[in-house]
Amino acid sequence: MEEDYDDDAPRRHYDDGNRAFLQAFMARGTLTFAQAQPILAAIFTALERREHREDNNNEDEAPPQPVRPQDVTREDFDSYVSAASAAVSPLDMEIRSTTHQVTKERVWALVNTTSDPATQLATLHSAEEIAFVRRVIDAMFDKYNTPRLEMLCLDGMQANKLRAAPRNQDEGLEDGSGAGGAGNEDEGAGATQIVGGLKGLKSSEVERVMRDMVDEGWFERSREGFYALAPRALLELRAWLVDAYNDPDAAPDEWQRVKFCAACREVVTVGQRCAERDCVARVHDACLEAFWKTRKNRKCPRCSTEWSGRHFVGERAVTETEAYQRGRRRSGRGGRSSSVVERIVEDEDGEEDEEEED
């Protein structure tokens, strides 16, 4: 599912067009082929018109027509991506690609191979904002990620509860144990708490930071209003996520907070899981069709339990439950669902809403 580009690709003909493409890529962080087509079309147009101006024999000729985005081929795109990957390699960066877990579209990302979230965000965000983002990621992989309910996401109201810096904020940034900040509802919406040299955020600042994370390609926001890690974050933070949240001494069949697809071996935050709760088999939705074609039956690849297709990883782990649907019906579709989600998450001893009825 993930694909790296050769850092030793030849740098022949690396010109202003390649530099313009790399600049556009770096400004966005991620690109799909469809997003790259108009960028490359504009670059090709500019290069052809410059060549036309520099050719003295073409003084009486009209300038070339603009290159249309649909005329940019995948071969063109791959060539520019390979050149860009070679150019950034000395900077400890590389270009990787993965299949989007929801849209199934191929996504390319510029990845820094040597840093963690704090380093990645330092140039654009304050220390308080970085600490808040870390608390959000901690919540995704800790509070909202249990053997019973693997949401790996949260909504805006739940993110707002993380606005105040916990007492162990400084330690949390170092050792990965900083999943805190929830339960600060007693603080006023505009309150600013200062703990350990870092102050918390105001509710308005939380909204802005979450928007920024989406705009910068770190988070994605679904139609239901849930925030989860975007492809850029999954590609760039893969090693860090495993180090921060998984136990290196755990047995192969032991549940871990960061799970991997049985088909492509990449991180799963949206997909399906085995109906047997103690089984660790997970598969991306985007991988399922090809995965089943390679197997004789639709049984779990680890424990051979029938694969129902009704046990989920991601927001559907909660939105497909009867408790969630019932809560939405009571509050109306436009009603807030955070309280419903919280009840489902906290009801560890209650009805197993995700279990398949016999």
Describe the structure.
With 358 residues, the chain is an alpha+beta fold. It has 14 helices and 14 strands. Strands 1-3-4-2 form a 4-stranded antiparallel beta sheet. A 3-stranded antiparallel beta sheet has the order 5-9-8. Strands 13-12-14 form a 3-stranded antiparallel beta sheet. Helix 1 packs antiparallel against helix 2 and helix 1 (16-28) crosses helix 3 (74-88). The protein starts with a strand and ends in a 12-residue tail after the last helix.
Shape: globular
Major sheet: 4 strands, antiparallel
- What is the structural class? alpha+beta
Strand order of the largest sheet: 1-3-4-2
Helix-residue proportion: 25-40%
Rounded radius of gyration (Å) = 23 Å
Distance between the termini: 34 Å
Low-confidence parts lasting 5 or more residues at pLDDT below 50? 7-11, 169-195, 349-358
Strand content: 5-15%
- One letter per element, helices H and strands E, the order comes to EHEHHEEHHEHHEEHEEHHEEEEHEHHH
Total E-strand runs = 14
Average pLDDT: 84
Specify the number of helices: 14
